[in-house]
């Protein structure tokens, strides 16, 4: 590869708006705050009440093991990428890792894939939020509200929360996450204390259950339950002592989700008994968890769960909004996106311009589905969300490969056997997980081959588009190309996010 020119001076990077201080708040977040931010993105209550019954109906009573397997693979992956964290100064998260390991062209391809994926996950869930709010308003107050009104109001609310900066975001998400986790724990312990349907058992963790037909698809569903955990690296500049905080937050997030998901799913199976749980999950998936909590805790708890699902989805929206705006900020700092996109709020230090752009994009997508008279669940949620799930898995796979290449070819002096082994193993396992999700994509989209082919094609097309843009920059704007993956390095890193 030809030598690259030096990065452009820091004054070209986006700055705070006029009248703001030159430096914005940094080093604000501790381990707990970052854990709240990333676990909230996974929306535990929504994942459990909305998706776990599907995992049980397909994988059988071994479904809890699917979450443990997915968690173990992602923990291995975390070992690899957190070892590299100290060598990546940028807050550009995974695409910065890919740039360091595989080169700038692959890095920008990964950045475009990340934007596609996170926007797909965030914007698609507005459909679910609209359905949940509409249903709750109808059941509790007898009010019927058109779903687009709910979705647009949610976009405005997410933008407002994001506007006030990361400290406020972390506090809001912390409250919402504790609430949704508490209601799931209340349900699970209610089942535990009452001994389930006919006594508790460990059938879910036997080899016959773990290797039952359908478990491959259940494992694919299990990986989708962790979407957002990888965004810990995005908060590098806002973390206190990031070399320690980011790895701790990553391990805590993965560990908590793995154990909690497995425990709650096992408790749901015990609530109906291992012999009958699969049948209930198959015939009444939407009402499975609500039936459990009403039976083992009380009707009031069922009402509370209904309401907390709404806040769970909203928390995920806010968390993904944070991830998207931070990607956009770093790309603006590098010169890939216009400088005005990365302008910070003069008081709160939030990337509010990036937030406005993302919110407008969300409104455009929502409006497109309204004009097409598409269903908010089938269309907006499943069709927009599914490419995001595949894209994140591909991004994680690329990052695992990049870690191995970085230590073997670009920085052998810093190489550790643990990082290389973990990177290699996780790359193979994540590639297998990606295959499982793609092979069972109909479970995620609930659509036919033609729609699935179009949705899946968005992932490789985004990679190709990113690579083409990078190559054009290399020829026409070599100064910008040289900054890809550097993010907020140097002086920019001291001032930005």
From TrEMBL:
Pfam families: AA_permease. It is found in: Membrane. PANTHER family: AMINO ACID PERMEASE, AMINO ACID TRANSPORTER-RELATED. InterPro entries: AA-permease/SLC12A_dom (IPR004841), APC_superfamily (IPR050367). Residues 1-22 are annotated as: Disordered. It comes from Kibdelosporangium banguiense. This is Amino acid transporter. The keyword Nucleotidyltransferase does not apply. The chain crosses the membrane at residues 34-59, 65-84, 105-125, 145-166, 173-193, 205-229, 249-269, 300-321, 356-374, 380-408, 420-438, 450-473. The lineage of its organism: Bacteria, Bacillati, Actinomycetota, Actinomycetes, Pseudonocardiales. Residues 35-479 form the Amino acid permease/ SLC12A domain. It comes from the Bacteria. Its main location: membrane. Keywords: Membrane, Transmembrane, Transmembrane helix. It is a multi-pass membrane protein.
């Amino acid at each position: 590869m030809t030598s690259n020119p030096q990065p452009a001076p820091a004054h070209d990077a986006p700055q705070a708006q006029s009248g703001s201080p030159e430096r914005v708040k940094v080093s604000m977040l501790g381990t707990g705050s970052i854990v709240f931010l990333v676990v909230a993105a996974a929306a535990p209550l929504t994942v459990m009440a909305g998706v776990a019954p599907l995992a049980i109906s397909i994988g059988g009573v071994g479904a809890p093991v699917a979450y443990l397997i997915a968690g173990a693979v992602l923990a291995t992956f975390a070992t690899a990428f957190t070892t590299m964290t100290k060598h990546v100064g940028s807050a550009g998260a995974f695409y910065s890792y890919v740039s360091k390991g595989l080169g700038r062209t692959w890095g920008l391809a990964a950045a475009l894939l990340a934007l596609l994926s996170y926007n797909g996950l965030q914007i698609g869930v507005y459909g679910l939020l609209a359905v949940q709010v509409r249903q709750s308003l109808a059941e509790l107050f007898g009010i019927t509200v058109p779903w687009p009104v709910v979705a647009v109001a949610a976009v405005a609310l997410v933008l407002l929360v994001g506007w006030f900066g990361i400290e406020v975001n972390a506090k809001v998400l912390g409250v919402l996450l504790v609430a949704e986790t508490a209601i799931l724990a209340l349900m699970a312990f209610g089942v535990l204390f009452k001994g389930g349907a006919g006594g508790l058992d460990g059938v879910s963790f036997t080899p016959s259950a773990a290797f039952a037909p359908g478990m491959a698809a259940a494992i694919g569903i299990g990986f989708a339950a962790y979407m957002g955990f990888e965004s810990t690296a995005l908060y590098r500049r806002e973390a206190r002592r990031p070399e320690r905080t980011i790895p701790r937050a990553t391990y805590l997030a993965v560990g908590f989700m793995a154990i909690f998901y497995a425990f709650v799913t096992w408790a749901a199976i015990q609530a109906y008994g291992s012999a009958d749980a699969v049948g209930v999950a198959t015939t009444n998936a939407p009402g499975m968890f609500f039936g459990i909590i009403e039976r083992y805790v009380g009707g009031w708890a069922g009402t509370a769960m209904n309401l907390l699902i709404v806040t769970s989805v909203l928390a995920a929206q806010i968390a993904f909004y944070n991830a998207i705006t931070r990607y956009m900020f770093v790309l603006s700092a590098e010169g890939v996106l216009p400088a005005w996109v990365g302008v910070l709020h003069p008081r709160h230090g939030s990337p509010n311009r990036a937030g406005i752009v993302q919110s407008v994009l969300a409104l455009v997508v929502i409006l497109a589905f309204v004009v097409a008279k598409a269903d908010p669940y089938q269309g907006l949620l499943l069709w927009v969300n599914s490419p995001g799930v595949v894209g994140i898995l591909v991004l994680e796979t690329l990052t695992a490969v990049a870690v191995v290449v970085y230590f073997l070819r670009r920085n052998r002096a810093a190489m550790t056997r643990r990082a290389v082994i973990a990177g290699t193993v996780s790359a193979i396992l994540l590639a297998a997980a990606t295959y499982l999700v793609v092979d069972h994509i109909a479970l995620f989209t609930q659509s036919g081959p033609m729609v699935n082919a179009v949705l899946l094609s968005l992932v490789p097309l985004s990679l190709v588009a990113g690579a083409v843009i990078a190559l054009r920059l290399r020829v026409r704007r070599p100064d910008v190309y040289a900054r890809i993956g550097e993010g907020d390095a140097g002086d920019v890193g001291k001032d930005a996010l």
